[in-house]
Design goal:
The complex is a heterotrimer of chains A (376), B (160) and C (361).
Chain A lengths: L1 H16 L1 H17 L3 H20 L2 H5 L8 H17 L4 H28 L5 H23 L22 E3 L6 H5 L2 E3 L2 E3 L1 H19 L1 H11 L1 H6 L4 H27 L1 E3 L3 H15 L9 H26 L2 H50 L1
Helix pairs in contact in A: 2-14, 3-9, 3-12, 3-14, 5-6, 5-7, 5-12, 5-13, 6-7, 6-12, 10-12, 13-14, 13-15, 14-15
Chain B lengths: L1 H25 L2 E8 L2 E3 L2 E3 L4 E6 L2 E6 L3 E8 L2 E9 L6 E9 L6 E5 H5 L4 H4 E3 L4 H4 L24
Parallel strand pairs in B: 1-9
Antiparallel strand pairs in B: 1-6, 2-3, 4-5, 4-7, 7-8, 9-10
Chain C lengths: L9 H13 L1 H20 L3 H20 L1 H6 L8 H17 L4 H29 L4 H22 L19 E3 L7 H4 L3 E2 L8 E2 L1 H18 L2 H11 L1 H6 L4 H27 L1 E3 L8 H10 L9 H26 L4 H17 L8
Antiparallel strand pairs in C: 1-4, 2-3
Classes of the chains: A mainly alpha (376), B alpha+beta (160), C mainly alpha (361).
Chain lengths: 376, 160, 361
């Protein structure tokens, strides 16, 4: 009798714990047949998007581990990667070597931005997420200052084709044609009509291995300690501030690489808006995969990419079929992305308060017991 | 111990710089223009063969008759090309693969085939391709300047 | 915030104290704005027109900035969820037109219709915020975004039929931008407007709008001095003390959120009457940020705000937004205004978020 009851509770807990991914599975299950896309088309699209986005989403894992919440500052890394790509495109370095060079250029920029972000977040403990959110806008302004005004006059750009007609500043779209899909195509394998970008997947696998290995290092353990409880970690002798900054730097550098992979897949990029949405949708995807603000695993990343992007693909066509209006589906997928983040944030905060009040209650209980123990 | 860490860091930075430099050389992209036209050099005229078939990699790029130009892209410092030369109409075809070194700082390179085949020095058969100024400033930017990109852009991304 | 800087030069201390109290960024911004004002006539921009524009934009935005005050007072932080209030206002505006009201009546009806929506949405929003004390700002942002994108779907689906509002082709689905000509375009602005063109100065003051703002500002100030108002302030500045004093913290926060949402609804209607258009769909998406940064520029912090903050902040912010493009264009033929606006407004919010406030958090 007892065993049966135990099992019942755990299934319910399982559902509640994974409510967001399950909801998405439901949405996809409903929308996929409605959208009218063929299985192989969907598989191909998902494979492509996986290769494109996974690295970016992986960069979000480390700050979560360090207790910094959802890193909206990944946009900073994206901008660093973009600057690298712009320079490399101008110097006419093509193919994979060009991408490697862009990655190398992005590293110092990412480190700088990550440092700044980390320092600012240390001054806003408890408000990391909204601060990193605003930082991403702020640095976007600085990025625009550099790319729209300084590139050309101050930072030499040799090719007029990259510049705006007025003579300075970079165009709205930068073509990456000579580098397009070079990583994807390098070791591509075609299985039943689905293109599998082997090299890209190898790179992603390496990133996963790095994260797994990193968790076991002393620095990684320090970060987890800081993430669980800053004061306890500080008492244990860990330099909390420095650890947090390092987590931001690593995340930003990763985001820079991820952005380069993302853009080489697209082939050209809208200079001024590529990075702005990246943060939002990667975070939404991670949350859809079952991650929370304080806990995220590699499994969440991959599950999230698959679920989120499937929804992303099928929602517009399904929406058109239901209501006859093509815009409904597009708005729907935007709405769902935001709603998912909202729900995850609410769940995180309510859990945090519950555990705090629980701890408070336990503390009160322990004190009461102690007192009663004394009087006896 | 701190000294050791510093050395490792400096080594890592140096390594990255070296890799970056290497990348910039092997990844340097060039657009190669191949001309099949007669070349005058040092008073001598080098005739253009009747037909030259150009193979890059394993694919045929194009067939060039007299005064024609073909173009392709190449990565790195050496341009490997296979030329199938037919000197006169219905004559014999000679096929040979050549590795032509390409200078690093040129974007577009013009190679004169007869000049190269005659074994002339590089300055004779190789010259830089400079696009006409009107071609440089493409006006396909449309709408760039009028509305400067701002925060409000792209709330509904078309692709992700 | 005042530091005890003891130097031998008494004057230096006082000056530095002044800067510290006022906040270095604010000094920079005020200086920048003064610079713009001074250089405007020099570079050929028409100063009175600029001032008119600034005052106009002030009148549109001031109520939206005022909406920040209740929630800052009650400790809910900066109201990034302002879009909820804006959405209520938009519902009021569109429904008022749909029901056939025109002219000044449409404005009054818009406010009346918006009110129940504001109460409802504000109530739900406030209930949510009470459950997540500490993480209000981030969640507020996303609640706002979700609401706007949800309404995007709704604007398409809801059965609106008024010909000025729907797409002519399909007959259903609201247009992105709806003109308010014939409704309440410039309604308050023209009311009792002081037109100095008669005496040769190209300056028009939208007295009506300013009066409405003044009315609401005075009402807010009065409210904050009532018993409920002081209770609300107590909840924000010292929740433990408030609880001990028997104040229902949750109820105060809820009231503040509802007030903020309602002011947001009125604020967007004020904005619309000045701007002349109703902007639907993604229009309200980013509207919280300018209001937040305006009040911060005016001297508020995450948990402290006053009416002068609203007035100064809106004026400075709108001044920069209006003057920078014109002056820069006339001077350098280069329009860096967008970039400057982004850096200034977000930098201000960043500054406020990274200040170590007394009492931790």
């Amino acid at each position: 009798m007892n065993n049966l009851m135990k099992k019942k509770v755990s299934v319910l807990d399982l559902i509640r714990g994974n409510s967001v991914p399950l909801m998405f599975v439901l949405i996809c299950a409903v929308f996929i047949p409605m959208s009218g896309f063929s299985g192989s088309y969907l598989l191909n699209e998902i494979m492509t998007r996986l290769g494109r986005n996974a690295f970016l989403i992986l960069s979000l894992l480390i700050p979560i581990m360090a207790g910094m919440g959802l890193n909206f500052g990944m946009t900073l890394g994206a901008m660093a990667g973009q600057i690298g790509l712009i320079l490399v495109a101008d110097w006419q370095i093509w193919g994979i070597p060009g991408l490697v060079l862009a990655a190398i250029i992005s590293i110092p920029i990412s480190i700088l931005l990550g440092l700044m972000c980390g320092v600012l977040l240390n001054r806003a403990k408890g408000r990391e997420m909204i601060t990193s959110y605003i930082i991403s806008f702020f640095v976007n302004g600085v990025y625009m200052l550099v790319v729209l005004y300084m590139m050309g006059p101050i930072i030499p750009i040799a090719h007029g084709t990259l510049k705006l007609p007025r003579g300075y500043g970079i165009r709205n779209t930068v073509s990456l044609l000579p580098m397009r899909q070079t990583i994807d195509n390098a070791l591509a394998v075609y299985v039943g009509g689905v293109k599998i970008p082997v090299l890209t997947l190898i790179i992603i696998a390496l990133a996963c291995l790095f994260i797994v290995w990193f968790r076991k290092t002393k620095l990684g353990q320090d970060m987890r300690a800081v993430g669980q409880d800053m004061d306890v970690a500080r008492d244990a002798g860990i330099n909390v501030e420095r650890t947090r900054i390092i987590s931001m730097v690593i995340s930003t550098v990763f985001a820079g690489f991820g952005m380069i992979i993302y853009l080489q897949n697209l082939g050209n990029f809208p200079t001024y808006s590529a990075h702005t949405n990246v943060g939002m949708f990667c975070i939404a995807a991670l949350l859809v995969g079952g991650a929370s603000v304080e806990k995220a695993s590699i499994g969440n990343v991959f599950l999230g990419v698959i679920l989120f992007h499937t929804m992303f693909i099928v929602a517009p066509s399904a929406g058109t079929k239901i209501t006859g209006d093509s815009m409904i589906g597009e708005y729907f997928r935007v709405f769902i992305s935001y709603a998912v983040i909202t729900i995850a944030l609410v769940m995180y905060e309510t859990k945090k308060r519950k555990s705090q009040s629980l701890m408070g209650q336990m503390l009160a209980q322990a004190q009461k017991d102690e007192e009663e123990g004394k009087t006896e | 111990m701190k000294g050791r860490r510093l050395i490792i860091r400096i080594a890592a930075v140096l390594l990255l710089i070296v890799i970056g430099f290497v990348m910039s050389i092997i990844g340097r992209g060039h657009t190669i223009y191949l001309d099949n036209r007669a070349l005058d050099y040092n008073g001598q005229t080098y005739k253009a063969p009747y037909k030259v078939t150009i193979y890059v990699g394993d694919e045929q790029l194009t067939k060039l008759y007299d005064k024609e130009r073909g173009s392709t892209t190449c990565l790195g410092q050496t341009f490997t090309v296979t030329l199938e030369v037919m000197e006169t109409k219905n004559g014999a075809e000679e096929t040979q693969t050549y590795k032509i070194p390409v200078p690093k700082n040129m974007d577009g390179v013009i190679i004169n085939i007869p000049g190269y085949l005659a074994g002339l020095p590089e300055e004779a058969y190789l010259s830089e391709f400079v696009a006409a100024p009107s071609a440089e400033t493409e006006d396909t930017t449309g709408g760039d300047d009028t509305s400067l990109p701002g925060e409000g852009d792209d709330l509904i991304p078309s692709d992700m | 915030m005042g530091k005890n800087v003891s130097t031998s030069l008494g004057n230096k201390t006082k000056f530095r104290q002044l800067i510290d109290d006022f906040g270095l960024p604010r000094v920079i911004i005020t200086g920048f704005l003064l610079l713009l004002f001074i250089s405007a006539p020099i570079v050929g921009a028409d100063l009175p027109t600029q001032i008119t524009n600034t005052i106009n934009r002030f009148s549109w935005n001031a109520v939206l900035v005022l909406a920040m005050v209740p929630m800052i007072h009650s400790g809910c932080g900066l109201n990034f969820g302002l879009p909820l209030g804006i959405v209520s206002g938009l519902l009021g505006a569109t429904l008022s037109i749909e029901f056939g009201f025109t002219g000044p009546m449409s404005f009054v009806m818009a406010i009346l219709i918006a009110t129940p929506f504001a109460l409802l949405l504000g109530g739900g929003y406030g209930w949510l915020l009470n459950k997540i004390k500490g993480g209000e700002m981030m969640i507020a942002t996303y609640v706002g975004f979700s609401a706007v994108s949800f309404m995007c779907m709704m604007w398409l689906l809801l059965p609106y039929h008024h010909p000025t509002m729907v797409w002519g082709f399909a007959g259903t689905g609201l247009r992105t931008v709806i003109s308010l000509e014939g409704f309440y375009d410039q309604l308050l602005a023209k009311f009792l407007a002081i037109d100095l063109n008669g005496i040769g100065i190209n300056l028009v003051i939208p007295t009506g709008s300013l009066l409405v703002f003044a009315l609401l500002a005075v009402a807010m100030w009065a409210f904050l001095h009532t018993k409920t108002g002081t209770a609300m302030t107590a909840v924000g500045s010292n929740p433990a003390f408030a609880k001990a004093a028997g104040i229902n913290v949750d109820k105060m926060r809820l009231i503040s959120v509802i007030m903020s949402t309602w002011l947001g609804a009125v604020g967007i209607l004020m904005y619309e009457q000045g701007f002349g258009f109703v902007q639907l769909y993604m229009g309200p998406f980013w509207m919280a940020l300018p209001a937040v940064s305006a009040i911060l520029i005016g001297g508020a912090s995450v948990n402290k705000a006053s009416i002068p903050n609203v007035i100064i902040g809106t004026f400075l912010f709108q001044g920069i937004v209006t003057m920078t493009p014109t002056v820069m264009n006339s001077a350098f033929h280069m329009d860096m205004s967008e970039v400057i606006r982004i850096i200034v407004s977000n930098g201000m919010i960043l500054y406020a978020l990274t200040r170590k406030t007394e009492g931790g958090r």
